[in-house]
Amino acid sequence: MGFYSETILPKLCDLAMRNKDLVPYRERVIGAAEGRVVEIGVGSGRNLPFYRSPVKQVLALEPAPNLIAMARRAQHPNMPVDFITGSAEAIPLDNHSVDTVVTTWTLCSIPQAATALAEMRRVLRPGGKLLFAEHGLAPDKNVRRWQDWLTPAWSRISGGCHLNRPIQLMIEDAGFRVDRVETGYMPGPKPMTYMYEGSASPG
Asked: Any idea what DSSP says for residue 86?
C-alpha cells in the first residue's frame, strides 16, 4: 500500500475535491472563518483560495507530505499561510490559541476522530468556533445499509474514509455545542453524499 497511499491516493483525493458541487460548501464555510484559523486536513489546498479578511492567518495542518506539497502550489490567499505536517489527533498548537477551526470532508477519514475533535476543542479559544462541512451517516435506512456495507472496502481504497460516521453526534460528544447545522444530499450516489454543514462552539 506504500506506493498507492503515498503517490496514487493524494492525486485521487485532489481529483475528488475538484468536484464543482463542493464549491458552495467551501464558500459558506470558509467565508465564516475569522482571526487565526487552523484548517484540519488541508489536503491539496482546495479551500485556500476562499480565505478572506477577517481571517488573519491560516495554519494548514495535514499528515500527508505529498498533499502538503500540492497545497503549497495551490492558489493562496493574500495572508500568511503556514503549513504544518502533523496529525489532528495531536495538534501541535497551544491551548486556546486559535479563533476558528475548519474541517471539510476530513472527519470521515481520521482514525481516532474523537481524539481529533477533543484536540480541536483544546486549541479553540473561548468564544471560538468550529466550522464544518462533512459527509456522513444518512437518515434513510436503505442508504444506511449501503453505507455500512460499503464502508469496510471503501475505507481501504480511499485513505480511511468512512461513509457512515454520525457527524453531528460526534461533534456533540466531543463537548461542542452545535449552533447551526444543515443536512441533505448533494448530487451523486446517496451513500457518499449526505452532507452536514454548520458551526459549533466549545461547550
From this structure: -
Instruction: Look up cell 468536484; give the residue.
Output: 19
Q: Can you read off the three cell numbers belonging to residue 203? A: 461547550
Within 13 Å and on the Cβ side, how many CA atoms surround 175? 13
pTM listed for this prediction: 0.93
pLDDT at 200: 98
Q: Are strands 124-135 and 55-62 parallel, antiparallel or unpaired?
A: unpaired
| Calpha distance 173→159 (Å, rounded) | 24
Q: What is the mean pLDDT of residues 59-65?
A: 94
CA distances from residue 27 to 24, 65, 112, 134 in whole angstroms, order as listed: 5, 26, 28, 14
**What phi-psi label fits residue 175: left (phi over 0), alpha (psi between -120 and 50 degrees) or beta?**
left
Angstrom distances, CA of residue 81 to CA of 64, 93, 136, 188:
17, 15, 29, 32
Positive or negative, the Cα torsion across 86, 202, 104, 33?
Answer: negative
